[in-house]
Amino acid sequence: MKKIFFALCVAFSLNFAVSLDPNLALKFDANVTTGTLENGLKYFIQQNPVPKNSAYFYLNVNAGSIDENDDEQGFAHFVEHMAFNGSENFDKNELVKKLESLGVKFGADLNAQTSFQNTTYNIQASVSDENLNDIFTVFRDYARGVKFDPAEVEKEKGVILEEAKKDYKTRFYEQRAKSLYPNSIFQRRFPIGKNEAIAGATSASLRAFYDRNYAPNLMSVIVVGDVNSTQIENLIKAKFSDLKPRSKKIARDTSLQKFGAGYANIIEPQIGTNAVNIVFAGEHSPLNSVGEMKKAWLDTYIAKLLSLSYDALNIGAKIPLKAGFDSDDLFGERRLYSFGANIFDFDANATLTSLFSAIKGAREHGFSAGDFESAKAEFINSVQTNLIKNDTQNKQIYEILDFVINGNTKLGKQDKHDLSLAILGEISLGDVNEYFKQITSGAHFTEIISTKDLNLSAGEIDKIYQNATPFDFSKNGLGEKKLLENEPSPAKFSQNFDSDKNITTLNFDNGVKAILKRNLGKKNSIQISVKKLGGISNFASKAEAEILSALLNSGTIGEFNEYEARRLTSGFNYSLRFGINELSSGFSGECASKDFEAMMRELFVKMSTPKIHANSLEKYQSSAISNLALRDETIDFRFNKQIVNSLFSGDLRFKTPLEISDVKSANLAHFGGLADKIFANGGEYLFVISGDFDEDKITEILAKYAGNLKGKAGRGEIAQTKLSANAVKIEENYGDSDKSEVRMIYLNYDLSEFDILNSYKLKAFESAVKTQITEKIREAKGLIYSASVSASYAQFPQIKSGLNISFSCNEKDKETVIEGIKEIVADIAHNGTSADQLENFKKAQILSMKRASENNDFWLSNIASHELFGYPFYDDEIYAARINALSNEDVKFGANLIAKEPFIAILNPKK
After folding, report:
1. Secondary element (H or E) of residue 779
2. Quick check: 440 and 280 in contact, CB under 8 A?
3. What is the value of pTM for the model shown?
4. Residue 14 above 60 pLDDT?
5. What is the distance between the alpha carbons of residues 408 and 5, in angstroms, rounded to a whole number?
6. 3-state DSSP: the chain helix, strand, coil percent, rounded to 5?
7. Strand pairing partners for 724?
8. Which of the chain's termini has less CB crowding within 10 Å, N or C?
């Protein structure tokens, strides 16, 4: 199901004439070069120079699991796999190796997905003449050159059957399908397929599916990035024009059963949540007309107004019931309008009563005029903001894909501006209320998702609906209130510009240090990090830190409750969150450039007058106790807790997860005191700002707010921990999947010195392990679908290095895979890796970091790490030189940083 809402990017102006004829077709973005070859293949090319010399390449095939015959279930996905297993121009594994030689990482930059109706292949790569030719040669092979070698088909069966793991997520998805689209082809054709069909597949049968469905008239090529459109267009014509169009695709019945009133209780013990959805249905039309665009905005209004209404409703409430609204496209056949909320303590009656009261109340009384104006101001600000922002390559790719797959028109920025603003100017509260009545006028289907049978009948639910008393949201109001009554005057500071690092440093008299880094990778956007030394280990326990974080993120601001806070900050486009990690604590935020002062004003109030509201604590306790009780019943939590207790020795307070007893014992005085303490000295906090800003304006705003926090110079401290790791093996037989789940953790706490250069060596070692597991265990033997491999190296709060490997496999193969991985790790420690693999790693790693450095969050992390922990300040040339200097000896050194023997945890299927 695809959400119809998309970011509507506009700037505010009333001096334009726009037709709001609902039948007027939307114009496709003129900045996209489009065309159709004589054989029917379509192409879409959009230039976007950020990041430089980088682009996304997609090949979409209009063929998926619904195009399979009964004995072909899983073939669309199988064909996708075989595209990487030998083709006209590339032998087995050579395709991946070729692209890796260009700096492309398999999985991150090179991948494919199969859905009900489409198969999509994608590559993200640096742009050069050689790379472009290779990429389109690969795409040409996907389109017509897959070999289907019989030996490779047999090997790949094992990989796919391992991927086709049956677990609680699969069961849940299959149950929901029976409720939402019963007796349809979509219920009968899940993309993963059926094991018996996969096992019975042959080279000939897969080739038959491929020949029938992989035709140029069913394909689209999409390219977005720092490219020359004419060059890309010529490459597409050169590579694809000789493909012959075919019309062998079999027409399928995609209709859905008539929607009607009903009830389903979807029971999944491992889902870890209880919730209610009240679903209405309407006709679906793609977002390709002014009328449909107006409906998208009306849906957005309803979601916002319902959320605000529940904030007002929850003032003083003990249980934090929150309702949400979604409008979804169901396979292009139907639109679903869903009202959902969580169930607390298995009391479905209370949640149903609340949702029915909200729906009946909004139908009878409508929404609040004040809330409507608040939402409208927020939407207008959003459209003002987004016009100036530069769209990311990734966003533009998905907008074009949305058009190709779902028919939703990709608008140009100016058209989004004109139409969105005109529609917002036309929509009234009466329109929203009337639209709400319209979409909720038909039959509704009630879906309850729970971990056990809640023993409700359709008749009982109907009775709850009949007895529900309508809420009156129309009376909600704020009154005359201001977030900050008296604005502070700018404080004094000293200023220094570092031309080598291109950063400006401000030092205030209260000890606050602020570092400004202009970064135009994302226009009209600013991100901020406000952190001090001292993380989880500075608290009594991990649980205490987690509870404090939750309370400081409850939505209140100083004396103002959640509803008041949301209303007072409406009209601004920013987000602000508090967090505590292992090493630091503080805020992170993002805003439109013009809303930086609004974000800083909220930050100033939160840090100057921190307050934990009694009602916030009460609601948190109700919610957390209910959620933790469900979590404790899940197998995942049970096994992860067992891993923690078996893997670590020492003080486990900072590893042990939050428990119900921790929540129950939380009291207002204690956590109010912690909030006061953590913000007692504003001078301990480092402010890092990165983005698109006017330095003089940002400096003035920081002087008003950061410079006036109470405090003196300081940076806090990190409390040291003392842990050790146990290289033991645990094995249990209570798993919920039909596969064995395995974790191998090489964790070393016995390092006496820390050297940041070792992190590069460990990263190269991680890459070598990933590559060899793929080649020797996945490709050569077909024993696993994939393995997650992650290396870590840290100085604080205790020097450690590690390698974490996780995978699932058939229970009978687990020891073979474990021993195979052990041999790989030991061999790399002794012999290193191949020269080709090391060179591929270097290219991919350097390219990956260059792309990352276009983002504000990269600079927040890098500058904070440099200032707080002394890690290197990122420089393209220095980083590339360090990576390129890595040798095979360095890979071996990285391998020898980790523990000699792994901790092993195995969870087998329940017997």
Report:
1. none
2. yes
3. 0.93
4. no
5. 10
6. 45, 20, 35
7. 649
8. C
> How many whole angstroms separate alpha carbon 75 and alpha carbon 67?
9
Tokens of 181: 């689209």
pLDDT tens across 498-535, in order? 999 999 999 999 999 999 999 988 889 999 999 999 99
Nearest-Å Rg of the Cα atoms of the chain is 29
Model confidence pLDDT, tens digit, residues 289-308: 999 999 999 999 999 999 99
Instruction: Provide DSSP, 64-92.
Output: -GGG--GGGTTHHHHHHHHTTS-BSS--T
Q: How far is CA 273 from CA 141, 277, 433, in A?
A: 45, 13, 32
Q: In 3D, which of 337, 99, 132 has the Cα closest to residue 230?
A: 132
Cβ–Cβ under 8 Å, residues 279 and 448? no
Q: How many CB atoms lie within 10 A of CB 688?
A: 26
**Cβ of 463: how many Cβ atoms within 10 Å?**
11
Q: Look at residue 643 and tell me whether its pLDDT is greater than 90.
A: yes
CA-CA-CA-CA dihedral for 870, 875, 880, 882, to nearest 10: -30
Torsion-angle region of 176 (φ positive above 0: left; ψ -120 to 50: alpha; else: beta):
alpha
* Sheet containing strand 334-342, strands side by side: 2-3, 324-330, 334-342, 275-282, 445-450, 262-267
Predicted local confidence at residue 405, as pLDDT: 97
* Continuous segment of H or E residues that includes residue 871: none
- Number of neighbours of residue 397 by Cβ within 10 angstroms: 24
Are 851 and 54 spatial neighbours (Cβ–Cβ below 8 Å)? yes
The whole-number pLDDT of residue 651 equals: 86
Query: Looking at this protein, which amino acid is placed at residue 590?
Result: E
**Dihedral sign, Cα of residue 860, residue 865, residue 866, residue 872:** negative
Per-residue tokens: 696: 């003089």
Which residues in 784-819 are b (16+ Cβ under 10 Å) and which e? bbbbebebebbbbbbebbbbbbebbbbeebbeebbe
What is the residue whose two structure tokens read 């590690």? 802
* C-alpha dihedral, 68 to 73 to 74 to 77, nearest 10°: 10
CA distance 487 to 366: 37
What would the two tokens of residue 844 be?
Answer: 């991919």
Tokens standing for residue 365: 């009384």
Place of tokens 């597409």: 236
Taking a C-beta distance cutoff of 8 angstroms, is the pair 271, 327 a contact? no
